Amino acid sequence: MVLELQKPRPIWQIMFSTHHTDVGLLYLITSLAFMFMGGALALLLRVELFSPGVQLIADSMTYNRIFTVHGTTLIFLFILPSASAFGNYLVPIMVRFKDMAYPKLNAVAFWMIPPAGALIWLGFADFTWYAYPTYSVVSAPGPAADMWIFGLKILGVSSILGSINFVVTIMKCKHPDLPLSKMPLLAWAYLTSSLITLVAVPTFAAALLMLLTDRLGASGFFNPAMGGDPIAYQHLFWFTFHPEVYILVIPAIGFMYEIFPRFSRKPIFSHGSGVAAFTLLTIVGFASWAHHMYATGMSFTEKTVFMVGTLAAVPASAMHTFNFLATMWGGRIKFATPIMWAVGGIALFFSAGAGGVVNSAMPLDFITHDSYWVVGHFHLFVMGTILFGTVGFVYYFFPYVTGRMYSEVLGKVHFILSFVGTVLVFFTQHILGLFGMPRRIYDYPAIPEWVQMNIIISIGAFIIGIGMAIFLWNLIWSSAKGKPADMDDPFGLGGKYYFPYQAKNPSH
Amino acid sequence: MSGHSTWPEWVYVGVVIALLCYVGAEAWNIERIVEHVPEDAEIIKVTGQQWLWTFEHEDGTKEIGELHVEKGKAYKFEITSKDVIHSFNIHDYVVLLDAVPGKINTVWFSPTEAGEFDIQCREYCGLIHYNMRGTLIVEDNGA
Ligand code: HEM
Ligand SMILES: [Cu+2]
Ligand SMILES: [Cu+2]
Questions:
Q1: DSSP per-residue string spanning B83-134
Q2: Do A37 and A106 meet the contact criterion of CB atoms below 8 Å apart?
Q3: CA atoms of B42 and B58, how far apart (whole Å)
Q4: Which of A10, A120, A347, B114 has the fewest CB atoms within 10 Å, counting from its CB?
């Protein structure tokens, strides 16, 4: 099958290749590397917060830089590239085309990521992943802040190029016998998330430029001392980044649409409902951005509008959850590692969504906003849903790329540790937020409840860390020494459950 | 698509929508009530700056880091900032509003219990953000 990496080739042949599976592999390895790096930073933060007082990190500026680079890395250098990785592998196959529409552009989009990553990591900025003015304009130390701005600029262009490629590949290169409505849901995921990217990301690209010229003193868009308005930045930022959360989550949902039917040995409950839910999210996701800004002093009417806009997007997510459960219902489920991650992922997706509804309800947001509750909320999505879906898919994909099987036992241990750890960390963070602990603080007063909960959270984080170390070992060891996979049916499900039903059978 | 029935999905989506409508309506109603400022509320000017809070009462007295108020009275905070965005927070009384330079945000509260409560900053504002804390002291003057 096309995905195999079995014939060893010199590394530069892969690096300079424009073939979609090679670019996919580059994306995959890069994104996983950044996942481990960003995760390591999180462990440093958790050591520091284990108890009040200085533990490990000598000063608050270093702590602030670490959480900034942690968030930036995992969103932009892990989640987005890992989605592109699988999109590169699968979208051309799913639409039955020989490659991406623009192979060279594809390679260019990938090769923008390493320099951007280098700018972010070498700069190590401190102004949080959202770089709000006026702090970012008048106070954040350079050159770190400027390097971050350039890094994000490059990543924005890269994801726009990548999205153009997905949209064109799907709309123009799709095999004429395959109607759009019959296209696999994972391909639909790439179509919709790419469309969101094309509409949402340019706004932030503009805001970044304005931020840069403001920092240089050449303009005062966001600087009240020069007649500007810092809140304007927040609108531009969230106009991009609320839709961005759907850009992040939709591919992960798409992975689950591949995993559930295969391992349940049953077709998807409703293809149409999946398509409808993706399309709904794409549109309604643009109506809710200012739910991040209730506390900036918006009027009652504004708050109401954005609350309604936010709640309107929930049924679409609920439709996906239903579809997954209904697909498993009555199936002959084989509980191999990939579906365990997917099942864990929907359980956490559901809890995360419930917390999101609480945030959206205006009076309640004044309790949760910028507290640890919010940290818990979005991590249940980015870790509990997106990372779980992605890691499950990495396991699912492993034999196709390496020709070998990962260790099933280690995969399951990894899942159990991650699930337990995720619940310990992020559920507890919700409660900690209700007790009033602000996010982004280097140290905290010894309020007994805060201390206890921080200890639980740190222990949970170390449990996740152990799981991730096992994952790394499993990936490296199994790709070299794992037992050769039965390429027709690596998971022993019976061959016809494999590859996208529209694509060629793998054994051909 | 495949010939099975889809009504369970419609019922489920209907239930979800009903719940959301309930949450939305309730939130709208409560927010409308809590945003209604009492006529007799005393004004306290709150200013955030890196990294402390200053307060100015109606009679002109100023305080730094500590805020004295009386139990049972209503107060309206007029919040702004001298430098970067901060967020003024008294968690026990669900007072939370950004202190934005060049802008005055208002929120009101009425302390119902005497004692000391934490004041903190909830928007990242740099080096000492973690320790931009203060104390609210509610006095019971038998009023
Ligand atoms: C679909 C996946 C989702 C992801 C990836 C996601 C991610 C995030 C992130 C990253 C933040 C915090 C940003 C920050 O302050 O740093 C956030 C906050 C928020 N989310 Fe979500 N979210 C998702 C779904 C939802 C849903 C379904 C709802 C509502 C029903 C929701 C409502 C909110 C609200 C209201 C906030 C603002 C909380 C606050 O700062 O006070 N989110 N989300
Ligand atoms: Cu949002
Ligand atoms: Cu602060």
A1: SS-EEEEEGGGTEEEEE-BT--EEEEE---S-EEEEEEE-S--STTGGG--E
A2: no
A3: 7
A4: A10
**Residue A481: C-alpha distances to residues A28, A226, A410, A476 (Å):** 20, 63, 14, 9
For residue A83, what are the CA distances in angstroms to A10, A91, A320, A374, A387?
25, 11, 18, 24, 10
B116 close to A (CB below 8 A): no
Any idea which residue has 């947001």 for tokens? A365
**Cβ contacts of A67 within 8 Å, gap of 6 or more:** A41, A45, A128, A440
Separation between Cα atoms, residue B141 and residue B138, nearest integer Å: 10
| Contact between chains at B103 and A231 (C-beta distance less than 8 A) | yes
Confidence of residue A1 (pLDDT cuts 50, 70, 90): very low
Q: What is the DSSP code (8-state) at residue A222?
A: T
Pocket test for ligand 1, best of A80, A291, A370 (most atoms within 8 A of CB): A291
pLDDT at A498 over 90: no
Measured between alpha carbons, how far is A269 from A256 in angstroms, rounded to an integer? 13
Considering only the top CATH level, what class is B42-139? mainly beta
Residue A499's H or E segment, with its range, is none
Cβ atoms of A99 and A165 within 8 Å: the answer is no
What pLDDT sits at residue A5? 58
User: How far apart, in whole angstroms, are the C-alpha atoms of residue A91 and residue A88?
Assistant: 6
Q: Distance (Å, rounded) from C-alpha A150 to C-alpha A216?
A: 14
Q: Which domains does chain A have, with CATH numbers?
A: 11-503 (1.20.210.10)
Residues 6+ apart with CB under 8 A from A87: A24, A162, A166, A190, A251
Q: B127: distance to nearest CA of chain A, Å?
A: 6
- This prediction's pTM: 0.93
